[in-house]
């Protein structure tokens, strides 16, 4: 059994943005040489998150951000807005969560046909958002 | 340390449905022979998810689907509905997430007394929904 | 590769409460002696959850609970309320989820600067809430 870890950084350009990181995660898995196991993807930020969904139609990411915007309204009396005007971003981050775990099969991410890995930016634009990929197998 | 992976398929009968997969996941853990470690449960679909909750009262699953239906309304101006009329299912899938990780103790899932593993169907009925169970330990 | 597992219990004092468990999780990681790998944190309850966010301003936890309260209203026609008057707590638990997976780097939790690990109580106060920490690496 081996552990292989690699981080990568990304810059976001919008206040809220879905970034498809499937290729970057897949490259770490390939580099690890691990054939069977799991891959943990972790966003090291309290105003970002990781999730998995379809990107064949990039509007799914747009709809996801819009839906979160309806669930968690900006400046809806949040106490943290008095300190740093981004409470809604923190709430969305905690709700979606920073980690996803994906099986590895035959040296590749065992994602379904319509699954891509998304980094979710809720408080951008920001430089140097860090994603930690850990492969065990 | 060993890796043991096994997938199983299930058919859903309703448009939205909670399927209790605890027994099927537990069988994979027993078959793995692994005594201590973790078990990753992964739904390989972009309109489904995995979560954990009580099934002693099956109405909890009904309430969960109803609550998601209030949070993410059908046809609420979603862009993806123009392509494939199931945007709300994708949003719910991304929100709940496809993966859960459960500890293994004494060769069994270390779930709490009231915890069951749920496959969540958001765009059924469908045949051949795949769940990937990976046991490491 | 080693597996190290340790559980700890905590008591909650409020009906809904965020408990910062970062220190307790970090102590398990230190005790494990594992230098590289992953740490799985699991709440063994169907009316609680684990998430990760900032605690420099504890009001973020307050805002998170308030936001969940807007998304999932108490006694909003939930069927489980007829059995046990805590359906909203179950829905929040299933939504946030009981598990998070955190990378281990240099023998420590590789959390971002603003990330803390939160135990979320949705149906307290309760004694003996159990958190299972499993370290693999």
Structural account:
The structure is a homotrimer. Chain A is of the alpha+beta class and about 140 residues long. The first copy, chain A, has one domain: YjbQ-like (Jelly Rolls), CATH 2.60.120.460. In chain A, about 25% of the residues lie in helices and about 35% in strands. Chain A contains 3 helices and 8 strands, in the order ββαββααββββ. In chain A, the strands form 2 sheets. Chain A has a 5-stranded antiparallel sheet with strand order 1-8-3-5-6, covered by helices on one side. In chain A, strand 5 and strand 6 form a beta hairpin. Chains in contact: A-B, A-C, B-C.
Q: Largest protein interface?
A: A-B, 35 and 34 residues
Major beta sheet, strand line-up of chain A: 1-8-3-5-6
Radius of gyration of chain A: 16 Å
Cα distance, first to last residue of chain A?
A: 5 Å
| DSSP helix fraction of chain A | 10-25%
Can you tell me the residue ranges of chain A where pLDDT is under 50 for at least 5 consecutive residues? none
Largest sheet of chain A: 5 strands, antiparallel
User: Would you count the extended β strands of chain A for me?
Assistant: 8
Classify the fold: give the CATH topology of chain A: Jelly Rolls
CATH class of chain A: Mainly Beta
Key descriptive features of the protein:
homotrimer; 137 residues; alpha+beta; Jelly Rolls; 5-stranded antiparallel sheet; 3-stranded antiparallel sheet; 8 strands; elongated
């Amino acid at each position: 059994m081996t552990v292989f870890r690699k981080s990568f950084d990304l810059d976001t350009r919008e206040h809220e943005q879905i970034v498809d990181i499937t290729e970057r995660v897949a490259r770490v898995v390939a580099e690890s040489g691990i054939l069977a196991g799991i891959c943990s993807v972790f966003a090291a930020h309290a105003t970002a998150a990781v999730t998995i969904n379809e990107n064949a139609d990039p509007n799914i990411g747009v709809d996801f951000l819009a839906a979160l915007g309806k669930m968690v309204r900006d400046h809806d009396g949040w106490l943290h807005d008095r300190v740093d005007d981004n409470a809604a971003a923190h709430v969305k981050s905690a709700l979606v969560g920073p980690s996803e775990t994906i099986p590895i099969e035959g040296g590749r991410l065992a994602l379904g046909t319509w699954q891509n890995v998304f980094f979710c930016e809720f408080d951008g634009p920001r430089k140097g958002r860090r994603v930690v990929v850990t492969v065990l197998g």
